[in-house]
Every structure is written in structure tokens, then in C-alpha cells.
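User: I've been going back and forth on whether these two constructs are worth ordering. Before I decide, could you fold them both?

Assistant: Sure. I'll take them in the order you sent them. The first construct and its C-alpha cells:
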Amino acid sequence: MEPRAVGVSKQDIREQIWDHMESQNLADFPRPVHHRIPNFKGSYLACQNIKDLDVFARTQEVKVDPDKPLEGVRLLALQSNKTLLVPTPRLRTGLFNKITPPPGATKDILRKCATSQGVRNYSVPIGLDSRVLVDLVVVGSVAVSEKGWRIGKGEGYADLEYAMMVSIGAVSKETPVVTIVHDCQVMDIPEELLEEHDIAVDYILTPTRVITTGCERPQPMGITWSKISREMMEKIPVLRSLRAREQQAGKDVTLQGEHQHLPEPGRQQAVPLSAGRRPPDTPGPEANSMEAARGSPAGEGAPLAADVYVGNLPRDARVSDLKRALRELGSVPLRLTWQGPQRRAFLRYPDSAAAQQAVSCLQGLRLGTDTLRVALARQQRDK
């Protein structure tokens, strides 16, 4: 397809593709395709073409987006005994889930594992500290050019996921990127529409073609914090953990709409607890484990500690599961009181501000299939 006019925008191209696919009945469920990565007819056939790529044959760990038209690639990865990583939906509870079929899984079970239901039922979260090395990235697209320039559905998750993988060292500039689309989704994209955070693709698979783009456009070098809003930080807890790490490494993590504050000469800059750092007088992990705080008694005028209630724990949950989730989200408490039989736990933080930040950070946290209830302990008692 060709873009309709000079001066076209990314959204114009999206609407053109969506309108065309609807009018020509080129998509399967879910419909309409607007505001989605289209589940185009022939997607399973297009996915089979990945078997012809040497990069797929060589790969050990492959990251595939959860979009419906990529289901065939997820199945092929599982059938080939490759490690399959799928981003968590909208990154609400972390970055990756590793799909783990049960031992002796049949073909039918593997097919189920490749679906969105399988991602929920047959996966385990992968923490930021896990040593993940992704050999191949597979993304969905709304439009893509033969030069390798890509347009997604406009929410930016695929670009952000890639940037986050760069941040944790999971991908390098040599990691190939593949997209799978209908033939009508391959079109010219004006170069002026591209931004520095946009990922490019090396291979395009359609039901009839395998296109090697030869794209030399550099991939994003990491998270562009100036493009990240406060609203996005609230919605994606794992971003807060990554921002804390990069802030500690001395990188500029100024968010969209923020002004960069430089410390005055000779004056120590205060860092909020949510950034993953503690005040100088707060005992560190060596003194405070998650099981017991062994610091010296609080001095005169010290802030009162505050507790956070965590409820609706799965019946088979272990304390190590919750500890791991807290570490990944950068919300490690001074003390964790585990009450597994009552399906709850209490987290002790140094003051009410830190506790409130933890409540915000942990909203939407899931262990297994259960979403946890998180609130300040006093509020929970009031309820």
C-alpha cells in the first residue's frame, strides 16, 4: 500500500491500514481491528516462514509479543524447545513471563501455552536480576516498510519493552528483530515520522514473502526518560525500579514535563525512598533483612515506622515469591511478617511516606493468577 498524501502522520497510516483491512475483510477475531495489532487472515501461515530464518534456528531465547497474530511463532518456539519469553500485558506486573509447559506436554497443551490463556496459566515471572539474554525479538506491527521502519498501534509498549531490555542488558544492537504482518501492511513510511525511541525491524514475514530489510537505522540505546510521563510511571511499576537503578548509576532520569534539578555545590542531594536508595542513617540490607530489622533503636525525633497490608495471597504462595516480587519492584521493606494461613502479610517501612509509596508501587501486583490487595495497614483495619 501507499500512504494517502504528503504530510501524513503515523496515525493517518494506522487509520488507513485499519480501514482497509476492515473494508476488505482481511482480519479474524477480534474485530474491529482499529486500535489493535490486526489479527490478519493468514497469520499462522506467515508465522511458519520464521522456520526459514537462520536467526530462528540459532536462537535459544526468543521474546515474542502477546499479540494474537504472533501465536504461531510462540507455538513454534515451544515446539522447538526454545525458551519463550512473553512481555506481561501492559507491563503491569513486570517485564517478562517465561512460558513453562508442564512436563510431557502434548501438542494440544503446547497450543494452549501459546495462547493468551496459556501465558496466564503456564508462565512464571522473570525478575530484572535474572540473567536473560534474548537472541531474537518478534513484535507485532500495524504498518512496516521494506526499509525496516515500523509503526505500532500507538501505545508505545513494543518500543518501551525493547528499551527496557537494553537497560537490563537482555539485548544488544546485534539482536535481530522480526515482525509478522499481512502483505497490505507493508507500505512506504516517510522517514521524517521516525523518532529515536522507535525500533526498526530486520525481517518482515507475510503470508507470501520473507523480506530482509537490511535496515541500518540504530536501535534505541535504552529508555528515553524524557518521553516517560508520571502517569506511565504509576501504571508500570517495573519502570520505577529501572529508573532507580539508572539514577544510582548517575544517568539523567528526568521525566517528561520535569525540570532537571542539579545539586548545589557542597550540598548532598536528597533522594526519595521510591528511587531505591535509603537515607544515610537507615540500616542497609546487611543490617535489615526482610524477616527482621536489626537496626539500633530509633533516636529522638525519628519518624514512626508504618505498615502495609498485603492480602489475597494465593493459598500455595511462599514467602520467597513475595520477597522476589518486592525486590523486582524496588519496594523492599525493613521487615516482612508472613501470615500464610490467613493469606496475608505485613510489610514494615521506615515512615508513612515510604509506606504510601510502596502501596502505590504494589497496586495491581499479581502472584500467580491472583491480584493482591494492598493498603496501608491502618486503612485495612478501618475497613
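The second construct, handled the same way:
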Amino acid sequence: MTNSFVLLLFFLTFLEHGLFFQRVSSLGINYGQVGDNLPPPNKVLQLLSSLNINKTRIYDTNPQVLTSFANSNIELFVTVENEILPSLVDPQKALQWVTSRIKPYFPATKIGGIAVGNELYTDDDSSLIGYLVPAMTSIHAALVQTGLDKYIQVSTPSSLSLLQESYPPSAGCFRPQVAGVMMQLLSFLRSTKSPFWINAYPYFAYKDSPTKIPLDYVLFNPNPGMVDPYTKYHYDNMLYAQVDAVIFAMARLGFKDIEVGVSETGWPSKGDGDEIGATVANAAVYNKNLLKRQLHGEGTPLRPNMSLDVYLFALFNEDLKPGPTSERNYGLYQPDETMTYNVGLLSSSSTSSQSSTSTNSFMSITSSASTVCTNTGF
């Protein structure tokens, strides 16, 4: 074989196995620690650096992690645990939290955001949501007082259970029982120029309705997709439809200018007998296809020129997580740092050029629509 042919085969082999990596500014990964066999933070830092991942989200302010990630190129998105949220409504306690949990590590450790709680509203529990915006306000005030507000954003990841309707995306609206809190939250996010974060899992929709929702549609595989009957936007995957449903829900409350990011999305590689679709093959396809789109800097049909920030869930399988088997099997890696499957973080110098899409239909729908949802289904 000629040298050029050998080089071509070598290159194609690398592409097939995902051995080339490119840093993607819009991509992060969730680093959960609910396990008794996970590698130490310094090893995790080495793994993330080898993957050219430059953003990660943790679910606390673990001092070992914050110390280990000092003087690295990886930005941390830290979390205020749900159980301490009520106490941080008090401005003095919020200041104490910032001065003890954040300030000692910054700027050596790149802390770019604080998640105040995680999924405070679910179908089963909404007891903490009333503390959310007051706690966020107190924490932001503490950042201002310590001179850190210019560097660290304050937001909160929400589940899609906040939505009363999500299909079609233009029908997106919030549940009436959270509309008041959403007005306060969105006002805060607008005033501080912070994003609205959502945890979005197309897997759950497919698991619940596998005969109605096409697998290729949720996995980003080629498929006919769906067209929103009101905006005429074409959706070839569920994640983008879910994001746009949230954007429409915000617009119905008068907030059309807030960025939306995905703080969690992923697919389990193993599940219980009734967890349809939880397989290694589907997990690999979902994450690989999403990563390809991240490499191209894609936006959603509603915001095609704004790349979508996404945090994959999760870095490791976590053996102590409660719940069904799937909860312990979202990791791209096993605790021994071997790959659960190859996600194929491929190197690419190409970027997709997004065509400018008219927002006239978005403006007309959201300006004339009531905040009350109509009953529509998938």
C-alpha cells in the first residue's frame, strides 16, 4: 500500500474509534459523585483534560474537587444542595456560604456558575420551590458584596415537569401552579443576564410511549421528524423540540430574550425490564449523535444562530444512586475509567453555517397567546 493510503486508513480508524478530540465550548459533562468506587478528583481532572472537556458540573461544593481543579482549564458549575436552600434565604447566611464555599477557591479554580438547588419542582414534590428565588437573590447579593458577580452566574436547573404542555413546541407553557415563581425567576435571570437551565431527557418520553414516539427521533438518527403546525419549524429530534417548548413557555410570560441551556441530558446503558430502550447501543448512539451536533455548534429551529449549551449526564456510572437500575447507568465511563461505550468525540474543523430563520411566527404566537395551555398530546 502507498504511504498516503496507509495514512488515510489510519485517519479513518481514529475517526471510527473517536480518538481525535476537539474542544467544544458549548459542551460540558455532569460529574456526579454518588458512588463508593469512583476515582479521586485529581484522576477525574486528568480524564476530563484528556477528553478536551472544559466544563463540568458538580452537585455540591466538594472541597476536594475544588482544590484538585485549581489551575486547570476546566470551568466548574457548582451546586447549592436542595436541603440547605431554606437557610440561604437569609442574606447573612448566604454571604457566609459564598465566603466559605466559593471565595477561598476562586480564581485559582474556575467557578463559572452556581446552581441553586436542582429540580426543585417535580410532580411529586414542590415544597422547596418557594425558597428558590429569595435564595438566589441572597446568593447573588453575596457575590456582589465579595466582587465575584462579574465572574459567576447564578441560576437553577429545572425539570421539564414545569411545563403544562410541550407538544408541539409552540404550545409550550408553564403549569399554572408555578407561573408566579417562574415570573420571579425569569425576572431575576434577565436582570443578572443568566441562562435558564433545564434537565431534558428524551429517553423518558420514549420509555413511557415506545409505540408512539419513533426511536430515531429521540436518538438524533435520520428520520422524517415533525413540523410544528403553527410555526412550520421542522424538528428532527426531541431534545431541540423540548428546548423550544421552554423558550415558548418563557415568551408567554413576556420573557423572549433569556438564553436556555441543557444542564442534563443523557441515555442509560442499562435498565430494569420495564425500562424500554435502556441499552448500550442506544446510549452510544444518543450521545454520539448529540456530540456531533455540538461540534457543529447547532442551535434549535427557533434559535438556529445561537449554539445550545449542553451538559451530558453523566461522566461515571454511580453505584449508590437510588431508584431503578437506569439511575446507576448513565455514565460514559465505568468507575475504573474504562469506557462504558465509545461516544466518539471526533475532531472536526468544520462548523455548520446556520441560516437565519424568521421569528415572525414566534413573535405573533407568543404575543397573542394566552398563558393558559390548551390540551394537546404527542
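Notes on the second construct follow. The longest helix spans residues 129-145. Confidence is low (pLDDT under 50) at residues 3-21, 346-359.
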